[in-house]
Structure formats: C-alpha cells, structure tokens
Specification:
alpha+beta; 5-stranded mixed beta sheet
Length: about 300
C-alpha cells in the first residue's frame, strides 16, 4: 500500500479512536461507581528521560476525583495535554482501577466498546509500523506530519477490562527484556543501518558510518554458532495482580492505564483493592533469582551480549 493511502488510513483510524474514547467516557459516567483508585506518579521532566529510577513517590486519589482523573487519562493522547515541563519522550503512566456495578447488558455494551477501542489502537500501530512501509527512523516524521504532537505510546496502549474480580492489588515489576538473536540477524541489522547513509545524533554521517562499519567487523569475527542476546533494561513498571477466588487463579497485568473492573449483578459488593506502595530500588528483596549464564557486552548501544 502506498504511503499516501496509509496517511488517509492513519487519520481515519485515529479519529475513530478519539470518537470511541469520548463515547466510553460518557458511558462509564452513566454507570454506578463502586470504587475508584488511581495512583499518580511523579512527572518525567524534559532531559531526565534516561536517568536511572531508584525511587518513586506515589500519590493516591479515590472516589469521584479518581474516576474523573482516570477517564480523562484515556483521552490524553497529545503532548499539549501535559504540562510544558513534562518530557514528550516519556508516556505518562496512571495505574489504578475503576470499579462499576453493572447488569449484564451494561457490561456487554461497555466490553464491546472497549474491544473496538483496543482494535483501533492495534490498527493504528499496524498502520505506522507495518502498512506505511516507513523505516523506523522516519516514523516520527510520518506520524507528526499528520497528527502533530501525538504521543504514539499513549495512542497504542490498550484498556484492560475485568469481570467480577475478587481483589485487585498493585506492585512494581523491574525486569530486563531478553531476546536471543543470531549472528546473521545482527549483521543484517547493522548493514541496513550502514547502507541507509544517515547521521544519528550526536554523530555526523561520516562518524556514524565509521562506528557501524567497526561494529560489522567485530560481529563478523565472532564464531558462527555464537550465542547472542539482546538484554535491554526496562524501567520499573506498575503492575496489577488480580485474584479470582472461584477459579483460584491470579492474573498479572501491566498497568500504565487504570484497569476497568465490571462487577456484574454483584449489588454493592466490590473487590478488595490494594494500594500501590512507593518504589525503592534499594529495598527490593528477590525471593528467587535464577542463576544466569555470564555475559560479555559486545555492542553497548544495542544492548548486545554474548554468552561466555
């Protein structure tokens, strides 16, 4: 598909997402609220996006104030929705849960709407990352030439609905993303970067080409059967742990947005809701930490390691 048709699809898909999000706001505001808890995290200021996070102070809001904050957050898709000092490179997270007492018809109606919204979010991401055919380095320009100031991560993040949970508790996850890769895969990636002939800040075009050429030589020197891993650190993330007593099952969800819990025909009963504690990296105690194979860092900017 041509880039021009993708632009048309991008705008159409985004406008439908905005419309459905407004519809969700109106629909949930008409439902009976059982409880609402949202946890407000400190702003990430401009220039501090890559600083290590060792402590996070959490402020909790409850009731109607939390409901309003949560529903508004779903619609915060542009930079101008945030304060001017907040980084546009870091999406704002608002963990929490909004609980509603509903009948079966209300639940089905809301669930259908949330599914439509999540489908549009996935479609938007597909248009940008696949359908457009635009290289990763050009995606920012492709999106912002049409939707100036869009925070794509906010536009991609899906909304999580629950039905009749017995408890919703919150915590922090702090893990690395580890992917096994082959020597050929890394060489293809480096050669594509080299052949693109672009400058990557803070390097000039010539400096960048020299750097990537050296990385290609270093990778070619490795044995063909070398065990390579990309071990990318992920900043600490809020999570929700949801318990279902009847099934004796716990499900864990990433929680950058408030979860929506529907209590169907439960009357005034509501799930037990925990609070999100402050995060302190120095106070973490690992119950079990499996022994990992020793790794040697090969290309720092790619977080590429080899097993020793």
């Amino acid at each position: 598909m041509s880039k021009y048709l993708s632009i048309e699809d991008l705008n159409s898909c985004f406008q439908r997402q905005e419309s459905k999000l407004k519809q969700l706001d109106e629909q949930l505001n008409s439902y009976s609220l059982l409880a609402a808890h949202v946890f407000i995290l400190p702003d990430v200021e401009k220039g501090s996006e890559h600083e290590p996070v060792t402590k996070i102070i959490v402020n909790e809001e409850t009731g109607n104030d939390a409901l309003n904050i949560g529903l508004n957050h779903y619609q915060k898709l542009f930079i101008y929705h945030n304060n001017q000092n907040i980084s546009s490179k870091a999406a704002v997270r608002l963990p929490g849960v909004l609980c509603f007492s509903v009948n079966q018809q209300q639940y089905r109606s809301a669930l259908l709407l949330i599914e439509e919204i999540n489908k549009l979010k996935a479609e938007l991401e597909h248009i940008v990352t696949v359908q457009s055919g635009v290289d990763k380095e050009q995606r920012f320009e492709f999106v912002h030439s049409q939707l100036h100031g869009l925070i794509t991560l906010n536009a991609y993040r899906t909304i999580t609905p629950l039905i009749n949970p017995d408890s919703v508790r919150f915590g922090w996850a702090n893990k690395n993303i580890i992917n096994k890769v082959t020597k050929d895969q890394i060489l293809q990636r480096l050669e594509k970067s080299y052949n693109a002939g672009r400058a990557v800040s803070p390097y000039s075009r010539e400096q960048w080409a020299t750097l990537v050429a050296k990385e290609i030589i270093d990778i070619k020197k490795l044995p063909n059967d070398v065990a390579l891993k990309i071990k990318r650190p992920v900043k600490v993330q809020p999570i929700a742990r949801v318990w279902y007593a009847e099934q004796q099952k716990q499900v864990q969800y990433a929680c950058p947005l408030p979860i929506i819990a529907f209590c169907v025909n439960y009357g005034d009963n509501q799930p037990k809701i925990g609070r999100l504690a402050n995060y302190d990296a120095n106070a973490i105690v690992h119950r079990y930490k499996p022994k990992a194979k020793p790794l040697e860092l090969i290309i720092p900017r790619l977080h590429l390691y080899r097993e020793i």
